[in-house]
Structure formats: structure tokens, C-alpha cells
Amino acid sequence: MKIHKYDYIPEPVLIGESLYKIVLPQPFYAPNNIYLILDKEPALIDTGFILSLGQLQKALLKIGLSLRDIHHIFYTHNHIDHISAALSLRNYTKAKLYGMSGMSTFIGHYIDHLHRFQRGEIRLFYKALSSMEERKKKVQKINNAWKPFYSAYEKDKKTNPILKMDVELVEGDVINIGEREIGFIHTPGHNLWHLSPYILGEGIYFTGDIVLENISSIYAEIDGNLNEYHNSLNRLLKLPIKRLLPGHGEEPKDPKRSIKLLSKTLHILERGVSRRLREGGEYDLNELACLSMGEKVKNSPYFVVALAIMHSIVQKLIQIGSVQINEVDPPYEKYFWTGSMQDSGT
């Protein structure tokens, strides 16, 4: 993919023994944290958004490396801001690409997969908003956000749209990169194929999008699951984590506290949605998001994420039989309580 202009070149920041963080821009949410483990066989955790690949290359040059020097690239999951650079990487490096077993086979043609993901986001707006005018405005914003990627892809004939990993990982695999060894745990919830790599014996865990400063997206009808998210958080709480290095934002000073806070926040949102529905009446996803997160969320860049979180909560309540759907004007729908008053849905 052709990448020519850069507003700036990220500075690799030394954050531990032979461990660097490189922050790359991307157009969808917060900038991505790419981690470099500088060992005999240098390794990267994720490679970011494809249009930022040139910035990653130039950032590596600041510490005397290039993509050609990288031996291993470990992907936390297949979302566009973490893995889309893989579509062009084989033009610049001979590094082995690693991902969760079954991920690349399921994804296949990555551009087709992104179109499916994009349609999933659009479906949320049609489920959530009754006004056709509002829907069109929100959908247009989503489509505009995707345009730079599709446009750049169409102009570059060297980009391979087929997502393929050289090594498909399962839990228990250990990859030696020199003096250090990298292990992997499966942490689904944000994404079905989500892995959290870690450095054996050091308590350093790279948690991708499972643990962030704010709640991560959970697209229940695409590749996320709220119950699995809770299970992954509970599992992380039991692990000997000394440092937690997220895919976005700053490293938390207290990893266990951050995990507990995220879990608590999710439970508070679930209880809030359940309480409002138990009190009677019908609510759509837009109303639930604004009631739970504040009216400002509707005009924020994270509105679709807020809708996705509300949808994942409602889907959980539907599955346990506490909530039903009123198909007001399909695909627009509202939800009402049918469970017992004691059933919190959490």
C-alpha cells in the first residue's frame, strides 16, 4: 500500500529492558500501541493500521532497526487497527506472522471481512435509531471513516487481501525469540480470536483490547461476547501480572485494580440497563446508551461503540429470557422486560 506523507514520526519509547512502545495513529479510535521486544530475534506485538505502516518503519529506524530485522510478529486479534498492516508487510519483511488458530481461515479475504464488519456497525444504527435522517447522518460518518482505507487499497496492487498467518497459535504454545520466551493465553470477549501474549517469567502481559483505560467495544453480532469478556477478565485477575501493556492508552500503574475497575464498570452498566427495563416501558439502544453513558455519547466518535456495548448487554438478557424484542419498524427495535423482578441479568 502506498504511503507517502506523515505528519510526524513516532518516537520509540524504552519502557523496560529491551522493550519499546511505538504509538501509531489510526482513524477509528485511539492511537495504537505497538510493542517491540528487542532480543536476538526481535519481535513485534501487533503492527497497527495499514496506512501507518510507513511510520512504524521510520520509527524503527530511529533505534537502528527496520522491518527487515523483525523475526516475529504476534497479533492480538484481527481488527483493522491492529492487523491491517499485515496485508502489506510481506513486501518489507520476512518475519513470521502469528495469530490465534483458526483466525485467518475464518477471515479469509480481509477486505470482504471488513465490509461485513462495516455492515455490522451500520446495522447497529438501524436497530437503534428511529429517525431515517439520523440514521443517514451516522451511516455517512461511518462510511467516511472507512473510505481512506478502501481508496488506498484499491490503488495498490502489491497488497495481498488474503489474511494468512505463518503460525497458528493455541494456548500452551511457547515461542523462543532469543533470551526470552513468549507465551499466549486466549482472552475472547472483545473479539473471538483475541490472544494476550506474555513474556514468560517476567509477568509482562500484552492485553490488546481486553483491558483499556475505558471499556472496549463488544460487537455481539460480529465477533464479541459479553460473557466471554467477563470470563477473560476473571482469568486475568488470577494471573501473576506485574505489568499490563494495552493496545491503546497508557499502561496502568496497578494492573489488577484496572481489571477490577473495568469488570465493575461493565457490571454497573448491566445492572443499570436491567433496572431501567424492569421499571417498565420500552427502550431502544440509543435511549439505553444515553441513559447509561450520558447524552454526550450520541455525538461522540464512540457512539457506535456505546451502541455495541448496550447491544451486547441486551443480547445477554435476551438469551437468559429476561428481555424480549418489540420489532417496532424492522430493523429498528425496542426492548422490554419479561423476567422476574429479582433477575438482574448480571
| Terminal-residue CA separation | 45 Å
Q: What pattern of helices and strands is seen along the backbone?
A: EEEEHEHHEHHHEEEEEHEHHHEE
* Number of strand elements: 14
> What gross morphology would you assign?
globular
Poorly predicted runs of 5 or more residues: none
| Mean pLDDT value | 93
**Helical stretch count?**
10
Structural class by sheet pairing and helices: alpha/beta
Largest sheet, spatial ordering of strands: 1-2-3-4-5-6-7
Which secondary structure elements does this structure contain, and how are they paired or packed?
Blueprint lengths: L12 E4 L2 E6 L7 E6 L5 E3 L7 H9 L10 E3 L5 H4 L2 H4 L6 E5 L2 H5 L2 H19 L3 H24 L11 E3 L4 E3 L4 E6 L8 E5 L4 E5 L17 H13 L4 E4 L8 H24 L6 H9 L9 H17 L3 E7 L2 E6 L9
Parallel strand pairs: 4-5, 5-6, 6-7, 11-12
Antiparallel strand pairs: 1-2, 2-3, 3-4, 8-9, 9-10, 10-11, 13-14
Keywords summarizing the entry:
five-stranded mixed sheet; seven-stranded mixed sheet; 10 helices; alpha/beta; 346 residues
